[in-house]
Amino acid sequence: MLPFKLIYSDGYYLPIGAHVFPAEKYRLIHRHLLDTGIAEPGDFMTPQPACDDDIRLVHTREYVQKLKTCTLSAMEELQMEVPYSPELVKAFWLAAGGSILAADLALRSGMAFNIGGGFHHAFPDHGEGFCVVHDVAVAIKRMHQEGKITRAMTVDLDVHNGNGTAAIFPPKKKPGSLPSAGGIRHDLRGNGRDLDMLGASDGELEVFTISLHQAHNYPVYKPPSSIDVHLPDATNDEEYLGWLDQALSSAFRNFEPELLCYMAGADPYKEDQLGGLALTIEGLKRRDELVMKVAKARGVPVMVTFAGGYARKVEDTVTIHCNTVVAAKELA
């Protein structure tokens, strides 16, 4: 058996019809993990849905009420970019429950996966970009409410900027900037990268946010994270891993988390329909290994969510996500 738990439910399936978001990927990941022997049935746990009070730790009472009573405006539904239904709300409440359980188990045993979640575009008062509620933020707030953490770090390696995460956990101060190679700060119009570092807040709950993402991609406006790495189009494995290593090193020099929430997007893949980076499947596994090695070296528990993935062949997305579990298994 695996030395960590995998949280999964068939209820993760999103009832959105024909869509670029592969709603069946969660079931395919579950099946692949079992069929290949990466995991056994006993490695899986079934989550319970988050309760409304959990969701309201992050989202406004008005927004939650609209979701529960089918009273979103046409514009609010359009912003979500997935068709609204009561069944959709149930799936997102369940995903949030899965992330709560994964966070709790990670704190107990050092590692846990939610085979779903990572809906990082959801804001307190609305959904965006296929994301209805921000399950990772809900999990962090729930762990804090229970007195289990006061400091968390999010490492968002989806190809798209984690705008909802940055809005929910905005940095409060700016201690300095980390320049790009050669000490020259490049603008985003060329082939350079721009890495800005902002410090975590001094509040009761401190959350340090990291986002590595394609600069010229969704969303247009990218609110500042604690560390943002704006990557140029066609960034390859070695370039990406170099910037990730630099970002993680800088983050841990400035912040000591009690929980690391890793959003392991599959969409930096070179064959992704909604991405423009050039990472290989092997490069993405090395990315996963790097995050987990850094956390393990510092004794920081890790909860993983899978975030986006829209490869032209859904089998590639499934392989990338399953490789994240393999990376954790090999490092355990």
Which features would summarize this protein structure in a list?
332 residues, alpha/beta, Arginase, Chain A, ten-stranded mixed sheet, globular
Give an account of the 3D structure.
- It is a single chain.
- The chain is α/β, with parallel strands linked by helices.
- The chain has a single domain, classed as 3-Layer(aba) Sandwich (Arginase, Chain A).
- It is 38% helix and 15% strand.
- The chain contains ten helices and ten strands.
- A ten-stranded mixed beta sheet has the order 2-1-3-10-9-4-7-8-6-5, with helices on both faces.
- β9, α9 (281-297) and β10 (302-305) form a beta-alpha-beta unit.
- α1 (25-35) crosses α10 (314-331) and α9 packs parallel to α10.
- The chain is globular and about 45 Å long.
- The termini are close together.
- Residues 175-194 and 197-202 have low confidence and may be disordered.
Summarize the structure in short.
The protein has 332 residues and is α/β, with parallel strands linked by helices.
Strand content: 5-15%
Strand order of the largest sheet: 2-1-3-10-9-4-7-8-6-5
Can you identify the CATH class?
Alpha Beta
N-to-C order of helices and strands: EHEHHHHEHEHEEEEHEHEH
**Mean pLDDT metric:** 92
Specify the structural class: alpha/beta
Task: Provide the gyration radius in Å.
Answer: 18 Å
Helix proportion: 25-40%
Please count the beta strands (DSSP E, at least 2 residues each): 10
Whole-number count of domains:
1
CATH topology value = Arginase, Chain A
Oligomer: single chain
Low-confidence stretches: 175-194, 197-202
The helix tally amounts to 10
Global geometry: globular
Going by CATH, the architecture would be 3-Layer(aba) Sandwich
The CATH superfamily is Histone deacetylase domain
**Measured distance between first and last alpha carbons:** 12 Å
Q: How is the biggest beta sheet arranged?
A: 10 strands, mixed
